[in-house]
Design goal:
single chain; about 475 residues; alpha+beta; 28 strands; elongated
Length: about 475
């Protein structure tokens, strides 16, 4: 098994993403042949010199007379003056023996995007490639069987598992559009860097360096190492990656852009004129709360389907019980220093001559939008960004929340999705203030009060643990427009 699409190529090393498998579990012993691959969804962290630089998610399901292997992830790496940033989504349909039948791979590497799809017919692979708008067709001839990269670590366990045995197979590389011969060796029983019993494998997919892999008896990869541990990929629980991924997604960094983008059908046109929206999200995780208020109504349809209504379309639905503000929504909090002297002074200045809270909230949102330079990186707490004048959407929302609370307006920090014209929906943070006995959405990044109807609220709270649930849906959900009002 091998996650080849996100690898880092350098003169003397190449790093790759790991085949995602199942949980980090105690290994069955002795190692024996497995009949099917691990059918599960799992997450992995990617590290360089113990620093987390990326992640990968993979899911394996049964599909017709074989399996579907889906994966997506992102990595940013710089080693020995060589750097690479990559995001990818990949889907492979394979037979029961893991031979490749068809594939669809989207990837962005150092800013260059490509979409490659194809299928096997007899002894030929028919490939269609769209690289930065240039479409080409290609056919590769081969003899024998071809396997996708994610099958490399599984291959030996679905045959005879004997220390010292080796296999030569053909693997398809969707980045180079080549079929490569790869040797996989079974080195024998070993332990991972954390002491877990495992079976150690090695392959030569990358020139000049060893690609070592540790798997358990169920075919679940536990750890992978390139260049004697310089680059490692380790199975992790989703909660361990939640805050890391949410920070990247809300910052809208290029690294995670393709991974987190939620495409919508049919496309929304002229979203600036939109006054109401109804969308259905599929592949929803039912363990997540459905957040009402702030100009949004949510209904669960069942089977991982949820309908969100915003703007005028939310007003067509009978009113729900308004959630009253809590004492905490008027008080300072971690990174929301509403009692800091400079925050209190600025809130007092902005309140001069203002007639009501609605007008005051607009003044604070407008001031915040103008005060902060919009950056990719988080500018830190409200007090820190007040001084630096820099920050992303999270920073804008913290500073607005601190000023609003200081001015006596109950305010909460929220996150979710917002539409980007011509693209789709990206993860974003904004705020909601309690004005005239109801919650009003306020976007201090885009200077909107109320925020436009493309704001789909998913989470409340600004702490890492509040953001972590995003991992349950990011890279998975799909969106369909049910109704648009202009």
């Amino acid at each position: 098994m091998n996650i080849h699409s996100l690898r880092i190529k350098a003169i003397v090393f190449t790093a790759c993403l790991l085949l995602l498998c199942s949980c980090i579990a105690a290994m069955a012993s002795p190692f024996g042949k497995i009949d099917i691959p691990p059918l599960s969804e799992r997450w992995f962290g990617i590290y360089v010199n113990s620093e987390r630089v990326g992640f990968y998610r993979q899911k394996i399901d049964k599909h017709e007379d074989g399996y579907r292997i889906e994966g997506n992830g992102s990595v940013r790496m710089k080693v020995m003056s060589f750097s690479k940033e990559a995001s990818m989504r990949e889907t492979y349909l394979v037979s029961k023996t893991l031979t490749l039948r068809s594939f669809d791979v989207e990837q962005t590497v150092n800013g260059s995007s490509s979409h490659v799809s194809g299928k096997i017919s007899g002894s030929a692979m028919h490939i269609k490639s769209d690289a930065n708008g240039k479409i080409t067709d290609k056919m590769l001839k081969f003899k024998g069987d071809v396997y996708p990269g994610p099958a490399l670590n599984l291959y030996p366990l679905m045959r005879t598992v004997t220390a010292g045995s080796s296999y030569k197979i053909q693997a398809f590389d969707p980045e180079e559009l080549k079929i490569k011969e790869v040797q996989i060796s079974v080195l024998g029983e070993d332990k991972t860097s954390t002491g877990l019993p495992s079976l150690k494998l090695r392959n030569n997919l990358y020139p000049f360096v060893n690609n070592d892999i540790w798997v358990n008896g169920q075919g679940e990869t536990i750890e992978e190492s390139v260049r004697e541990g310089l680059v490692t990929t380790v199975a992790e629980q989703p909660t361990a990656l939640g805050s890391f991924i949410s920070d990247w997604a809300l910052a809208k960094k290029d690294l995670i852009y393709d991974f987190s983008l939620v495409r919508v059908q049919p496309p929304i046109k002229d979203s600036k004129r939109l006054i109401g929206l109804a969308v259905e999200i599929t592949n929803w995780n039912d363990a997540l709360p459905l957040l009402q208020g702030g100009g949004q109504l949510v209904e669960k349809s069942g089977n991982g389907r949820v309908t969100f209504k915003t703007g005028t379309l939310a007003q067509k639905t009978p009113d729900i019980n308004v959630q009253k503000p809590t004492d905490a929504q008027l008080k300072p909090a971690d990174k929301i220093e509403s009692e800091a002297p400079e925050i209190k002074a600025q809130a007092k200045t902005l309140s001069v001559g203002v007639k009501n809270q609605q007008e005051l909230a607009k003044v604070i949102a407008s001031w915040t939008a103008n005060w902060l330079n919009d950056t990719i990186d988080d500018g830190g707490s409200a007090a820190e960004s007040f001084k630096s004048k820099n920050g992303n959407c999270q920073t804008h929302s913290r500073l607005y929340t601190a000023l609003a609370r200081s001015a006596g307006i109950p305010t909460r920090f929220v996150s979710g999705l917002v539409h980007m014209e011509g693209k789709g929906f990206l993860y974003h943070s904004w705020a909601e203030s309690f004005i005239d006995n109801h919650w009003v959405s306020v976007d201090p990044t885009y200077n909107q009060l109320p925020a436009d109807p493309t704001h789909i609220k998913l989470l409340e709270g600004h702490l890492p643990e509040d953001m972590a649930p995003i991992i349950a849906i990011i890279g998975r959900i799909k969106m369909t427009v049910l109704e648009s009002a202009y």
